[in-house]
Amino acid sequence: MARRVTSEAEIIERYFAPLAAGLPGAFGLLDDCAAIHPPPGHDLVLTTDAVAAGVHFLPGDHPADVAWKALAVNVSDLAAKGAHPLCYLMSCAFPEAPEHAWLQAFAEGLAAAQEAFAITLAGGDTDRRPGPLSITIAAFGTLPTGCMVRRQGARPGDRLFLTGSVGDAALGLMLRTDPNWLAGRALAPEGQRHLLWRALRPQPRTALADVLRAHARAAMDVSDGLVKDLGRMMRASGTRAVIEAARMPLSPAARAILAEEPWRIADCLTGGEDYEILAAVAPENAGPFASLAVASGIPVAAIGEIVEGGGVCVLDGSGHPMQLEREGYDHF
Amino acid sequence: MARRVTSEAEIIERYFAPLAAGLPGAFGLLDDCAAIHPPPGHDLVLTTDAVAAGVHFLPGDHPADVAWKALAVNVSDLAAKGAHPLCYLMSCAFPEAPEHAWLQAFAEGLAAAQEAFAITLAGGDTDRRPGPLSITIAAFGTLPTGCMVRRQGARPGDRLFLTGSVGDAALGLMLRTDPNWLAGRALAPEGQRHLLWRALRPQPRTALADVLRAHARAAMDVSDGLVKDLGRMMRASGTRAVIEAARMPLSPAARAILAEEPWRIADCLTGGEDYEILAAVAPENAGPFASLAVASGIPVAAIGEIVEGGGVCVLDGSGHPMQLEREGYDHF
Question: Are residues B220 and A32, on separate chains, in Cβ contact within 8 Å?
Fold first, then answer.
């Protein structure tokens, strides 16, 4: 029978304390608080996001994937604000005492994510309660004082950019939850793997932080669907966005699916979990922004522009406004 | 029928944004991150603790009590480290869309707690998932750089102090969960109200923060039971504690119960949820510490001292070590 942990102290000392070794202010997780300070002239940027089994990941997902996603969705927020990751607090709720093997793999996944995102565990809280396994992370980043890139700030005339590609995670989730979904479709195994990977392993665009601070007037990460999140940016900015479906950056795998079922562009635009960055950039900065992004290794696509008004308009290939059944994901 | 909210935006704009009005870096909760910085020469102290229905509060508890407790248990951690509360992130998981009336009362409870603890909402995350209603807070405080009072640091010869009184919350919980528990006991209604209040409304000892930084070698808040938490401090410090049951600070209500059932002292020593502060103070500072605490309006009692060795020894009224069935609360 699989061995389960028997105390909170065992979880912390054996699995979590090594993850905090790089941060002196974490005090080896021997204390119940951590102490940090941003470098002089810098702000600390704070964010929190939770992931729960059955909602943000599938029960039975590999613990390393769960760990990666729990941290990535928070770091994605920091990156979109122009902040460099520093450290995080993690609150875990287990429905039953976890197995050692599960914790081992979970801690390894966190260690890999920490290294990829340059962030360190500072502290946390672990308890047992009914309900789905839940991981709530509060993540902290730094940037020069007063320089956080806001949702608010887009102005008419600004160009809208999107990093990476849109819709992969939503298509990947369909693939995961309905094994028959691919039947009869001509999607190569490599494409399938790409979509699954994108659903399981969001890649926060941390390399774009400095470019965003230098050139973006407004930015946010796309987590609940491109159209919905763009709508939030427009509401905060008091502006309207016009984007073109034909200009959406799509992966070869998504293109292969859309070639057979063009209407699935709506799933890509509203499906969520992209963890890409949406940025509004003044026209005169559009060139430098795109060049610096590419130089940072982050592909960006110009998907539309900001105009006077409110809301979001998506134009189809013929230049007509698309009618979308929904804008994105809402928990309520 | 009671009206329920229909979107996350509604919850944030209507109920939570007003709680963030006092913090410019919360950006009115229009963004997905907040930006803050500690004053020059100060550290930021970070902590996180979650409360869930059926574990940390009872399902059906008044939403204002739930709000108060969720914030208080975090602020208690900050106070014990010598930090002044600054702001917090709050992640709420609702099993179903909450009713407007519930949210209204919850927000009012948070507002009252914010005012009592001098802390402001900075941001958060709200979603819907199966399982108990859960509130996970990450709280942030400030103190002069490098001055966080640690668990580690107690030395042989130090005096051990405890604020307030011990055991009230544990007795209050018995009263709440077993209505027949009081039958035949001579506890006045005023005493009953006191115990219930202590279980529902922890009072973080924020007024003690400066005194702790000035005079305590080690400190922590007591949340999982005095004996268990003291054991943690001793493990971190590499020392042994000897405390005397007869010196425990007890409320009149607890004294009335113990007069009839003296063995219930064990419930007081291990019951948890006291949210009092335990401090180890060098003998030469014991006088000033006690005077300054009283001047700050916080009663403190000398409950024992630190010696060489490890672990915790509780002496009964005859000076013999007590055998306790358990040390405190563990989630696993």
Answer: yes
Is the four-CA dihedral B162, B164, B169, B172 of positive or negative sign?
positive
CA–chain centroid gap for A96, Å, is 28
> Which residues, listed in sequence order, are joined to residue A181 by a DSSP beta bridge?
none
Q: The pTM is what?
A: 0.96
Among A30, A33, A132, beta carbon nearest to B130: A132
| pLDDT tens digit sequence for A6-19 | 998 999 999 999 99
Rg (Cα) of chain A, in Å, rounded?
A: 20
Interface of B with A in 84-103 (CB under 8 A): 87, 89-91, 93, 95, 97
Interface of B with A in 3-32 (CB under 8 A): 5-8, 10-11, 25, 27, 30-32
Tens of pLDDT along A19-47?
Answer: 999 999 999 999 999 999 999 999 999 99
What is the rounded end-to-end Cα distance, in angstroms, of chain A? 40
So what's the ipTM on this one?
A: 0.95
Of A44, A47, A89, the CB nearest to B32: A47
Is B15 within 8 Å of B104 (Cβ atoms)? yes
Chain B positions in Cβ-Cβ contact with residue A37 (cut-off 8 Å): 38, 42-44, 145
Q: Which residues of A touch B127 (CB under 8 A)?
A: 50, 52, 55, 331
User: pLDDT category, A1, cuts 50, 70, 90?
Assistant: low
What's the pLDDT tens digit per position in B179-237?
788 777 778 999 999 999 999 999 999 999 999 999 999 999 999 999 999 999 999 99
Coil, strand, or helix at residue A287?
A: helix
The answer to whether A314 and A243 have CB atoms below 8 angstroms apart is yes
* Dist CA A316 CA A265 (whole Å): 10
Distance CA B184, CA A296 (A): 75
* A297-330 exposure pattern, b = at least 16 Cβ within 10 A, e = fewer: ebebbbbbbbbeeeebebbeeeeeebebeebbbb
B1 strand-pairing partners: none
